[in-house]
Amino acid sequence: GEDVEQSLFLSVREGDSSVINCTYTDSSSTYLYWYKQEPGAGLQLLTYIFSNMDMKQDQRLTVLLNKKDKHLSLRIADTQTGDSAIYFCAETFNDYKLSFGAGTTVTVRA
Amino acid sequence: GEEVAQTPKHLVRGEGQKAKLYCAPIKGHSYVFWYQQVLKNEFKFLISFQNENVFDETGMPKERFSAKCLPNSPCSLEIQATKLEDSAVYFCASSLGQGTPLHFGNGTRLTVT
User: Fold this and answer.
1) Which candidate from B99, B103, B106 shows the least CB-CB separation from A96?
2) Which residues pair with B6 in a beta bridge?
3) Cβ–Cβ < 8 Å for A43, A59
4) B100 vs A46, more confident
5) What is the pLDDT of residues B28-56, one digit of tens each?
6) Could you tell me how far CA A89 lies from the centroid of its own chain?
7) Cβ atoms A25, A74 nearer than 8 A
8) Average pLDDT of B74-80?
9) What is the pLDDT of residue A1?
């Protein structure tokens, strides 16, 4: 299957942590990804995690993977106004093609 | 190059006209993908190439859409006789190999009037 689901909106106060959640269906996915899209811009590869890992940390970003529950999350520490964007969760399907979620719009308020 | 380059950024076509979009993948990447982003942020896979060969075209509307990746040329996506519903942002992505991360370009916004 190639269904990826994520919540549509998240509002967070500047300086707080943001957590974006995602569930996926293809248990054979080798990589799971987080992409960021700012208004009118392209897709920026934020981070990705290999399916045999539980966690990956990269500066302010922490990715957690629960393979049993097919649950992926992205935590952004000390959220800034520049983090306002749409965040897409994606899984590899058939080991090369990406299947995207609908995107979570993150709004950072002062 | 170090990034996926898509041209043009914006393209406006009257219904029935042809549209041609270009993509230069990252140097050394052997896979190229085309995705269509429509309303509500939905991404639809169109086609992928392994070097100049079509790898997977299961998402392509065969009647009016065609794509090519020829040696020493940018890849292209062509839409003959555009329709209003073709209005979308078309993203190109490339990857080093199967199972490796996809890197996306900034997209081409196609508006069909």
Assistant:
1) B99
2) B23
3) no
4) A46
5) 999 999 999 987 678 999 999 999 999 99
6) 4
7) no
8) 97
9) 41
Nearest to A43 among B45, B91, B100 (CB): B91
In chain A, which residue's Cα lies nearest the Cα of B105?
A42
Alpha helices of chain B — where are they, by DSSP H? none
Q: How many residues does chain B have?
A: 113
Minimal C-alpha gap between A30 and chain B (Å): 7
Residues of chain B with C-beta less than 8 angstroms from the C-beta of A48: 101
* Spatial separation of the C-alpha atoms in residues A17 and B39, rounded to whole Å: 29
Q: Which residues lie below 8 Å from residue B3, measured CB to CB, with a gap of 6+?
A: B26, B103, B105
Q: Using CB atoms within 10 A of its CB, is residue A20 exposed (0-12), middle (13-18) or buried (19+)?
A: buried
Exposure class string for B33-47: b at 16+ Cβ within 10 A, else e: bbbbbeeebebebbb
Q: How far apart are the first and last CA of chain B?
A: 34
Mean pLDDT by 10 residues, chain A (110 residues): 83 97 85 90 90 93 94 97 95 80 94
pLDDT at res. B1: 64
Tokens representing B76 are 């292209």
Distance between CA atoms of residues A46 and A98, nearest Å: 15
Q: Which of A95, A98, A105 to mutate to test the interface with B (most CBs of B within 10 A)?
A: A98
Q: Rounded to an integer, what distance in angstroms lies between the CA atom of residue B103 and that of residue A67?
A: 24
